[in-house]
Amino acid sequence: MAYLDHNATSPLREAARLAVEGALAIGGNASSVHARGRAARALIEDARAKVAALARTEPSQVVFTSGATEAGALALWGAVQGAADSRDTGGARITRLFVSAIEHPSVLANAQAVAERFAGLKLETIPVRRDGVADIDALRNSLREGKGRALIALMAANNETGVIQPVADAAALAREAGALLLVDAVQAAGRMAVPQADYVTLSAHKIGGPQGVGALILGEGVPFTPPVGGGGQERGLRAGTENLSGIAGFGAAAEIAAGERYGSALRDHFEAELKEIAPNAIIFGDESPRLSNTTYFALLGISAETALMALDLDGVMLSSGSACSSGKVKRSHVLAAMGVNDDVAGCALRASFGWSSTEADVEAARVSLENLLARVGSRAAA
Questions:
Q1: pLDDT tens string 67-76
Q2: How confident is the model at residue 217 (pLDDT cuts 50, 70, 90)?
Q3: Taking the CB of residue 120, how many other CB atoms lie within 10 A of it?
Q4: How many separate domains does the chain show?
Q5: CA torsion angle 170 176 179 185 (round to 10)
Q6: 243 with 20: CB under 8 angstroms?
Q7: Catalytic residue numbers?
Q8: What pLDDT shows up at residue 381?
Q9: What average pLDDT does range 209-220 have in this prediction?
């Protein structure tokens, strides 16, 4: 089997598995004061320090969640409500919400929901250039032309194309305009330095940790009102008994990922092989800075669904972009934002490398793709 879908989920690392098993053996609630509770608390705080190191922040700013989707939702709802609650202490209500056109569907969906829930909150889209990079000039003009406090959502790197986004520029604009910045750093962790922002989201299973656990990094003093009440866990910022085993596994994976920058050699080798067997292949975003582990490409005339089935039969696992709960191939909103036509977008495939990837995986993918192209060519000739 050749697994080239790390942007969807990176296989569980051995260290993370052992950490999960060790936490399960404790059997204590971290909110309890007895010995097992204290042992559970110690595991959580150890993991918090490791995740903080990965995010280049302080442990006190790390809030554990069930994943990046929840973390992003917490940030959006918590920031808007928190800013509204802070008016009595001199804060300003958020009246504008800017979201890039290529954000993960979870951010796009929650941004829409927040805009519908809060009266007077206007949702605006940050357009994206044809090279896959968010149009910072358009954001700058919009911030200057409008009035009111803004919250900006811009991912660190796109999960489909791997194109790295101008977060530093967005942060500078936010400071100038008195706005707040939310960064989805899910694909950045372990592949580039995690950006600094008012709100940052992370996911364990993208770096070889367990599924079902993530984190929200809250900047110092940012507005935030928890949307869900409960037992006061996570310093009252995220209610609910902590996922002890998941958090322990997250910490173990974060500790390793903090020292990694994997994928470049394999990604470059894969793209060289791809160009050799399919000179007309399109690689999306290849003129922009990209994550070193991601190739998003199209073999014209071969639908993504057909290609994925053929590859899977050969034991080669790629994807068509964002993982969809339906398990079906869906047209990419990212490519649509980049101006790619439907015929080309319908052929899009993503190969993404990670800690377990090898040269053998690249070779297996090359052979499978070459065989697929030969079969399609034979049918066309007939």
A1: 999 999 999 9
A2: very high
A3: 11
A4: 2
A5: 30
A6: no
A7: 324
A8: 46
A9: 98
d(CA 75, CA 349): 31
State the CATH number of the domain containing residue 321.
3.90.1150.10
Instruction: Domain of residue 291: give its range.
Output: 2-9+261-381
Together in a domain, 200 and 268: no
Element (H, E) at 217: strand 214-218
The predicted model scores a pTM of 0.95
Q: What is the bridge-based pairing of β-strands 2-3 and 316-317? A: parallel
Residues 171 and 295 in one domain: no
Tell me the C-alpha to C-alpha distance, in Å, between residue 351 and each of 160, 256, 281. Answer: 9, 22, 14
Do 216 and 286 sit in the same domain of this protein?
no
Domain C-terminal end among 220, 236, 257: 257
Query: Same domain, yes or no, for 151 and 42?
Result: yes
Average pLDDT over residues 166-178: 97
Give the tens place of pLDDT for each residue, 156-169: 999 999 999 999 99
Residue 246 burial by Cβ neighbours in a 10 Å radius (0-12, 13-18, 19+): buried
